[in-house]
Write a structure and sequence with these properties.
- InterPro entries: P-loop_NTPase (IPR027417).
- One of its GO terms (molecular function) is glycosyltransferase activity.
- This protein has 21 helices and 15 strands.
- With about 575 residues, it is an alpha/beta fold.
- The protein has three domains: about 180 residues, Rossmann fold, CATH 3.40.50.300; about 170 residues, no CATH class; about 130 residues, no CATH class.
- The protein has a five-stranded parallel sheet, sandwiched between helices. Strands 8-9-10 form a three-stranded parallel sheet. Strands 11-14-13 form a three-stranded antiparallel sheet.
Length: about 575
């Protein structure tokens, strides 16, 4: 259940009038908990807030109607925010009148909804249901017009949803499993709002570690294009039986994921969530398993990785964890074929039942976290390990690692609070936080970052001064300012503070990445050079001070001191 401090999940049931939205809404009321979900007919909400009800509303000018429609969705969001419930709303996107289509969605709808489920019912069934409806008078519309109307809604809604980060699902005509499918989608939509995906990914990694308490090393690898030359996602879509009705809209393209990831969502978390819904729409559980078998049979692992994994399998203290943005089930089948089902675990997604999605950011963040934990454990152990009883050294390191992991998890939880905690090491966030590559809001970055908040405007203005022509770009203490805002991996010598994902304080849709505080190889070399110079100077001063009353033995290359002088400067 969402907390009162976070944005509620608002799920819209859409489709042409007569497709069965009200029927579906009433069925959902029977199956979903009323303590967790609130149900709304959009027209009923409008009727309840407009003086004079729906009849008065219908007499208003279109501009006034849009105003009241905006008030209605605001009321729904406010109620669910206060009650910490997920909203399920039956709404309208377009109306048809004498061959003309009029869009009735408002700007507030674009910011309120988190998931749109479109009832993609054949126009023949819609026409019959409209004709048989004894409770409402519905105009008789030709089948061709119904088809045009429906396609226009699907095209425009799917486009708007991608632009505004709203999940979009097409629901085919009702079947025996129709309600079960809708319930699964609704629960999925609620989950992704109420529990951060990164938290769920961390939980799976921690469960893996808990099941292998004897581990000293975990080898984390990607799957597609790493363990094999194949992209299993592309092979999956090429292997589909395109004769199945739900896939009619996908026939024109071999892999709809290419359009998805090249669109407004980029490779954002919302894009991977949408990809999961595409897989759900394309195949039921039985067909999905069958297609995964086909894809696995077409995918050959590199022999070098097979050999490496077999060597690792011989040791209890090291294990392999495959973390993939692709299809978890496909890679489980591939690894099972190679004999690794007991020794290698796969974390991935593509189905709602997986419970997680893995994005490039999630993989990078997990890798950074593991590196930092390992580094902290080593540094702390090097500092205090000599004070630990020899019989308990391994226990000490194990519990220290567990503490570090839990600290990281706690920090991740803090990052997903509604009121963000700004890291104290980065007051000038406008300058040091960079938009995530491919984020849906990257096009707005220039506008957003040019208007810092009052609290940081002074600091930001001083940190954003451009160097004079021909002068090197200024470097701040402990941090590198890169010319293009992105660190080049080959130049980074040591990360002295880890990277963090963050959300822009002035724009909740803006994904930001702090690259951390780093030292380049050049800076490290310069520091070592300065340190060596300081040590030479200290030794020279020491020798000069000791020359008074001190003789050097000429028969030896070793300088002997009689003591009494300050040797603290000698390294």
């Amino acid at each position: 259940m969402p907390s009162k401090d976070m944005r509620p999940a608002v799920i819209g049931l859409y489709g042409l009038p007569g497709c069965g939205k009200s029927f579906l809404l009433n069925e959902l009321k029977k199956h979903l908990s009323h303590s967790e979900y609130a149900f709304f007919e959009g027209s009923d909400v409008i009727s309840s807030i407009v003086p004079g009800g729906l009849s008065t509303f219908q007499e208003l000018e279109e501009e006034q109607k849009q105003l009241w429609r905006g008030f209605a969705i605001d009321k729904i969001v406010s109620e669910c925010q206060d009650s910490a419930k997920t909203a399920v709303v039956a709404g309208h996107f377009m109306f048809w009148s004498q061959g003309e289509l009029a869009t009735v969605w408002t700007p507030k709808d674009k910011t309120a909804y988190t998931h749109i489920m479109y009832l993609d019912v054949p126009e023949g069934i819609i026409a019959k249901q409209r004709l048989d409806d004894v409770h409402r008078h519905r105009a008789e519309i030709p089948l061709a017009e119904l088809a045009r109307w429906q396609q226009a809604e699907i095209d425009q809604l799917s486009h708007l949803c991608q632009r505004h980060g709203i999940l979009f699902s097409r629901l085919p005509e009702r079947s025996r499993s129709h309600i079960a499918t809708v319930l699964k989608l609704i629960q999925f939509s609620s989950l992704v709002i109420t529990e951060a995906n990164a938290t769920r990914v961390d939980a799976k990694v921690n469960n893996f570690l808990a099941d292998h308490a004897e581990l000293e090393t975990v080898v984390v690898v990607d799957a597609d294009k790493t363990l094999s030359s194949e992209d299993t996602g592309v092979v999956f879509w090429q292997s589909l039986d395109l004769r199945r009705p739900p896939l009619d809209a996908l026939k024109a393209q071999d892999c709809p994921l290419s359009d998805l990831f090249s669109g407004p969502l980029g490779y954002s978390e919302a894009a991977f969530l949408q990809a999961t819904l595409l897989y759900e729409e394309a195949a039921n559980e039985e067909d999905f398993e069958r297609i995964c078998d086909i894809v696995a049979s077409k995918t050959k692992m590199y022999a070098e990785f097979v050999s490496l994994f077999r060597s690792i399998a011989c040791h209890d203290y090291v294990r392999v964890l495959v973390v993939t943005c692709g299809i978890r089930r496909v890679w489980e089948k591939i690894l099972h074929r190679e004999g690794f089902s007991r020794t290698i675990q796969v974390i991935g997604g593509s189905r709602i039942s997986d419970g997680v999605i893995v994005t490039a950011d999630a993989k990078a963040q997990e890798k950074k976290k593991n590196e930092r934990v390992k580094e902290v454990v080593k540094q702390v152990y090097d500092a205090v390990g000599s004070f630990v009883n020899s019989e308990r050294k391994e226990e000490f390191k194990s519990k220290l690692e567990d503490l570090c992991n839990r600290t990281c998890d706690g920090w991740m939880q803090i990052q997903h609070l509604e009121e963000r905690v700004r890291p104290s090491f980065s007051p000038n966030y406008i300058n040091v936080w960079k938009p995530l590559p491919g984020s849906s809001s990257s096009r707005r970055t220039e506008t957003t970052t040019s208007t810092p908040s009052p609290a940081s405007s002074t600091a930001a203005s001083t940190s954003q001064k451009k160097p004079e022509e021909g002068q090197p770009r200024r470097q701040e203490v402990g941090k590198v300012i890169w010319p293009d805002g992105q660190p080049r991996r080959q130049e980074v010598g040591k990360v002295i503070w880890p990277s963090f994902l963050y959300q822009h304080p002035e724009d909740p849709d803006e994904g930001l990445l702090h690259h951390g505080y780093v030292l380049t190889d050049a800076q490290t070399a310069e520091a070592e050079k300065e340190g060596e110079s300081s040590r030479r100077l200290a030794r020279r001063n020491t020798r000069n001070n000791e020359q008074i009353g001190t003789k050097k033995r000429r028969d030896s290359g070793i300088f002997l001191s009689k003591g009494g002088s300050d040797r603290s400067g000698i390294a």
